[in-house]
Amino acid sequence: MNTANPEAPIDVETELATAREEVLAGRGESAVRRLRRLADQGVDHPLQAYWLAAALGAAGDWQGHHEALRAAQTQHALAAMESCNVDFARLDTDLAYALQVAQTFYSHNHVAVASTAYSRALASPQAPLSAVLGYGLALQHQGRIEEAVAAFSLACERSAGAAEAHSFLLYALFYVKDGVRRHAEEARRWAAIHFDHLLSQAPGFSNPPLQGRPLRLGYVAPTVTAGQLRQFLAPLFENHDPEQVEVSLYLKDHPGPAQPPNTRVRVIGDLDDARAAQLIRDDGVDVLVDLWGHTANGRLGVFARKAAPVQVSWMNYLQTTGLSAIDYVLHSDGMAEPHAQDEFVEKIWHMGPAIAPFRPDPRPEPTPTPARANGFVTFGSYNHPARLNDETVAAWSQILLRTPGSELVLRYRYFEDMVLQNATLMRFAAHGVDPERITFKGHTVQPAYYESYAEIDIALDPSPCPGGTTSNDALANGLPMLTLKGDTYFSRLGSALVEPLGVPELVTETWDDYVDRAVELASDIAALDALRLRVRVGFDCFDHRQAAGFTRRLEAIFKDMFLRWQDERATNAA
After folding, report:
1. H/E element holding 267?
2. CB count, 10 Å around CB of 147?
3. Could you list the mean pLDDT of each consecutive 10-residue stretch along the chain, which spans 574 residues?
4. pTM of the shown model
């Protein structure tokens, strides 16, 4: 731009290109001045707001970065709605129409656009609770966690007495800063508000001794044959010994021909919590296991009514439920840290090296690391966007900057949203990463999902919110996954999975170590190729692949819990 002649026409594209170069070179303050001059002169380019957010971050103004990023997302979302012929006048006056627009975008994974539409709907005092929850979820799926927490807190205020709405808040607290502590405090509050008073009303139990009979074991979940638990539960149910345990499944709906062998299904989807709890008592269950926690469609209200003498939380919810009616939570040994028990109402029971059995879907044959053919290293993460906090983005940015030519692939269904894509690119650009080095992939299904791991050289595990099923899938396909151990039981989920595989170079203690290790791994392609095979072999030899042995140990744990209850009952009776 010719600053000596104020009448000269503005070459907007050149100015934006220059601002971009300044941001990526770390000259954020210069880029901020340039972009603000454009705004002062009435320029309103679609990318201008995004690059201003990146420039503010590059200049060290992180609060300004976040505020500008939200403004850019809103501007972009409105443009996306306009391109879809959304009637904005009607959006602000017709609540039903606003909700329809929001839900349509949400159902197509355009969560950033959906959140903007939901915000318009919430301007109406008649907006239903479902709109508040939808708004919170749309924010959460973008990684706008504190905003999601605020939305779910509003939902709690609007639905006094509704434990389900409160559970949405608890789930969001996984991802906030200091999330372990904040979640534990809120879980106790949730239980005190909604359920703790029920425990004193629960009837006693007269379950007979185990001598000469199998343990009566019950599992509670919406489903055990689909969704995120399928790969963990199938090998478990196939290996339960019917002579040692009688297994009942308390599900939302009947699984039909997919019903696991040697199990009895009880459909409780149409029963309220009190009736479901009574059904379980009538079945004489000794140990009742919750597989779902505060996740949507969970049935913690059943457990609050003490449906069985021993109650256990496991699998999908490794945090505290907050319910004193639940006796134990199962953790793997690798999750242990000195202060973990302080964050739990339940007693932590460390069950061995693996948290659960795992059966990968049919896998392609091992492949060489793609850097051999590409000539550059491809990092990848298939994790939910909410896990990509600022610390993780900063570390991954340093890795990209220190490994010239490397690329990063982010795969998740919500990355189909162009608004979320641009916002994510600007978060990395604020640290100097060229957006051209980041590729987004959306939802895919088998076998293409597993085949896609052949495109990645190194998986990057976020922290302190590491991956779960995605980590198992990556390791099962031989993908080296770099993880940060962290100092809480939750942050150690990744290291608990990787450490037993015999690949210690993939577990780090600090962010500096994490970045250095990634750079080191990327510098030796031959060693990285060999590591790929070591990971797959280590995964297949790990305890969670020995389904029969794992199940025998789990049965012994449940029996031990029940015997302890029997002993305590006898002691109290005496």
Report:
1. strand 263-267
2. 18
3. 53 90 95 91 85 97 96 95 95 94 97 96 92 96 96 87 84 92 95 88 89 95 88 93 96 92 95 96 98 92 96 94 97 94 97 91 94 96 96 98 97 96 98 97 92 97 94 95 95 94 96 98 96 95 86 96 92 76
4. 0.93
Structural domain 213-350, CATH architecture? 3-Layer(aba) Sandwich (3.40)
Buried b (16+ CB within 10 A) or exposed e, 1-27: beeeeeeeeeebeebbebbbebbbeeb
Q: Is 211 exposed, middle or buried (0-12, 13-18, 19+ CB in 10 A)?
A: exposed
Q: Where are the alpha helices (DSSP H) in 292-370?
A: 300-304
Q: How far is CA 371 from CA 110, 451, 474, 532, in A?
A: 32, 16, 17, 12
The residues near 102 (Cβ < 8 Å, ≥ 6 apart) are 114, 115, 117, 118, 121, 131, 134, 135, 138
Question: What letter would DSSP give residue 223?
Answer: -
Distance CA 335, CA 565 (A): 26
Q: What is the CATH number of domain 86-177?
A: 1.25.40.10
Domain 371-545: which topology? Rossmann fold (3.40.50)
Task: Beginning with the edge strand found earlier in the chain, give each strand of the sheet holding 287-290 in spatial order.
Answer: 263-267, 245-251, 215-220, 287-290, 310-313, 328-331, 347-350
